[in-house]
Amino acid sequence: MTFTVGFDLDMTLIDSRPGIHACYTALAERTGAFIDADLAVTRLGPPLAEELVNWFPEERVPEVADLYREMYPAYAIAATPAMAGAREAMAAVRAAGGRTMVVTAKYEPNAKLHLSHLGIEPDVVVGDLWAERKAEALREYAAGVYVGDHVGDVRGARTAGALSVGVATGPCPAEELRAAGADVVLDDLSAFPAWLAGYREAEASRA
């Protein structure tokens, strides 16, 4: 069976704060609503609707979410860099003969635009899944490891029976990721290739 590693997107593979900040600022101008973009980008991870409900009446959230997603490519893609070590982490999985996948709560077409813009090419991209629901995709592709920055990612990995690797690059500090049940916590993805090599070696010795 192909060894498969899943990655979260926002604040794991990409630093989406500048792009999302720009898109929220533009959305506020378009709708006339107050949105604290500085605050919003400190709590990335959960689905868009969970943020929008702080700034819009609940009945307007679906309509505003559609508008945000429509505006997103123009404001967020070019402004968003890769996280340190992102490309190297993906390359390490491939070098080990593995398959890479991205499982994210982000709207899938926009997730693919980010990855294409940055030249990061996972084998599989699945969007619109958050927390425990990420396990649906992880199970489908038999991912043995899932890497993410949020306690929701830890829950997704554990629900899928995958090893949870936390990276302390998002809103959840290392101790929070550990408390949520992460099996491993790295400072950032720069440490991932060395960790993966050790993990694969240990797995081979147990086989």
Nearest-integer average pLDDT: 97
Task: Summarize the biggest pleated sheet.
Answer: 6 strands, parallel
Report the structural category: alpha/beta
Computed over alpha carbons, the radius of gyration is 17 Å
Shape: elongated
Distance between the termini: 13 Å
List the quaternary state of the chains: single chain
| Physical arrangement of strands within the biggest beta sheet | 3-2-1-4-5-6
Helical stretch count?
10
Explain this structure to me?
With 207 residues, this protein is an alpha/beta fold. Helices cover 48% and strands 12% of the residues. The protein contains 10 helices and 6 strands, in the order βαααααβαβαβαβαβα. It has a 6-stranded parallel beta sheet, with helices on both faces. Strand 2, helix 6 and strand 3 form a beta-alpha-beta unit. Helix 1 packs across helix 4, helix 5 packs parallel to helix 10 and helix 7 packs across helix 8. It starts with a strand and ends with a helix.
Condensed summary:
By secondary structure, this protein is α/β, with parallel strands linked by helices. Helices cover 48% and strands 12% of the residues. A six-stranded parallel sheet has the order 3-2-1-4-5-6, with helices on both faces.
